[in-house]
Amino acid sequence: MSITEVPLIINGEKVRSQTTEWLDVLNPATQEVVARVPIATAEEIELAVQSAQTAFKTWSKTSLTNRMRIMVNFAHLVRENTQELAELVTLEHGKTLPDAEGEVGRALEAIENASSVTRLQLGDMGNNVATGVDTYTLHKPLGVGLGITAFNFPLMLAAFMFPPAIACGNTFVLKPSEQAPSSTVRFVELAIEAGLPAGVINVVHGGPDAVNALIEHEHVKAVSFIGSTHVGTHIYNHASKHGKRAQSMMGAKNHMVIMPDANKDRAINDLLGSAFGAAGQRCMANPVTILVGKSRDWLPEIVERAKLMKVGPGSQRDADLGPVVSPQAKKRIISLLDSGVEQGATMLIDGRNCQVEGYPNGNFVGPTLFTNVTTDMDIYTQEIFGPALCVLEAETLEEAIAIINANPNGNGTSIFTSSGWNARLFENEIDVGQVGINVPIPVPVAFFSFTGSRASKLGDLGPNGKQTVSFWTQTKSVTARWFEPDHEDGLNVHTTISMK
Length: 500
Prior knowledge:
This protein has helices at 42-59, 64-80, 82-93, 97-115, 117-120, 156-167, 182-193, 208-216, 229-241, 264-276, 299-307, 327-342, 378-381, 397-406, 420-429, 467-472, and strands spanning 4-5, 8-10, 13-15, 22-26, 33-38, 125-130, 133-141, 144-148, 171-175, 201-203, 220-226, 245-249, 255-258, 288-292, 346-349, 368-371, 388-394, 409-410, 413-416, 435-437, 453-454, 457-458, 473-481. By secondary structure, it is of the alpha/beta class. Strand 6 and strand 7 form a beta hairpin.
C-alpha cells in the first residue's frame, strides 16, 4: 500500500508542508502506516490565517443566497462521495464501514442545516419605535473562525464547525486530528469544489504549539472545539484569555436508564449498540446503564447478547465494532479495565485479551461488562472511551435520577420506558443537556443545537441549530431616523436621551 502525504490546504490549494516533522497515520486494525501528516510550520500557520483574513474581505460581502447555494452544492458532492469518505474514515479511525457511512449522513445533516442559515441570520425590525424612528438588527460575520476536532468523528465534527461558520459569512481555519486527517482533508476539498472561493476554508495540521499559535493570532475571532475535557478546558481558557469567543464540547459519562416497563428487546439491543458501537469511542456513548426494579432480572440476557457481538476490522461489514484508534488508547483502556477488577467490580465479560483472526497487530478490545460498580471507582468516574459497560442498579426511577445528577458530566442521558409519566418525570428532573426517550444516543438532528451541559461543555452556545448563528455572528443594532428635505426641527438643541 502506498503511503499518502496529507496536504495542507491554504488559499484554495493543496500544499505540501515544508516541515521536517511528520507523524505516521496508522490503520488501527493492522498498524500499517497509511499516511504521513505534517506538523505545520509557524510560517504555514501564518499563511493559512492570512489567507482566511484576506478572503474575509470579499466573502463577508457575498450574498446570503450565494452562500446558501454553495452549501447546497457541497451537500450534493458529499452525498455523491459517501463511500470514498467512509472508507477513509474506516482506514484511519477503525470504525466499521456502516458506522462511517452513518457519520457521513450526520455530516450531511449539518451541511444541510448550514444551507438554511440564511433564514436564521435574518435580523429583527421595529418600525416607528419612536416618532419616525426605526430600529433593526444585523447579524454580521465575525472574521476568521478556528475549528479543532477530535479523531473520533473526523467528518461530523468538522461539519458542525466550518459549514455554518462559512454560511454566516466568516472564513475558516480547520485543525483536524492528526490521527485521522485524510477524510477531513477530502471533505474540505469537496467544499472547495462546491464553489468556495480561495482562502475561505484552510486546513493545517499540528499539535499543541499549532493550536496555541492559531488561538493567539490577532485575526482569529472565534474558536470551536470538540474533544477531551483536558484539551477542551485549555483551549477554552486560552481562547478566553486572548479575547476570543469560544465553545468547547468535551468529555462525558452518559447513563441509560432501563425501566421494567420498557420494550425489553429494543432496550437491550439499543443499550449494546450505544455502549459498544465505534468501540465506545463516542462522547455520546452509553458506558453506564442503570437497571431499575425488575429490569435487573434482564442482566443475564444483556450479558449473553453482548458476548455475541462480533469484533473485527472496520472494513468487515458484519463486524459490530472495530479496533480502538491507537496502541496508546488500547493501553489506557486496558489499564482502566484492570482497575475495575482491582477496585472490586465484577467483570462478567472480559474483552482485554481480544484476538481477531488475521489481524494480530490490531488495537482490538472486546465488549467488557462490569457489575457491582460503585460511583467512586475509576471505571465510573473516568471516561474510558472504549467498549466497556458499567451496570448499576436502582430500586426506583428517582434513585436512578439522583445517581445521574450527582455525576459532574452533562452531555447526554436516556431512558427506556413505555410510561409517559416516567418519561416526563425523567426529562424534567434530570440535569443533563441532551435527553433521549427510547433513543440511546440523543444527539439531535442538526437543525437543533447540540446542548451538552455542566462539565461536558464550556461556553454558552453549542454547535448546530439556532445557536450556531448566535455563535458565529455579532449582532449590530441600528437606530435610524430620516427627515423630510425641508424639515426644520433640527434647528433646536435636544439634551435629553428620550425618543417619543
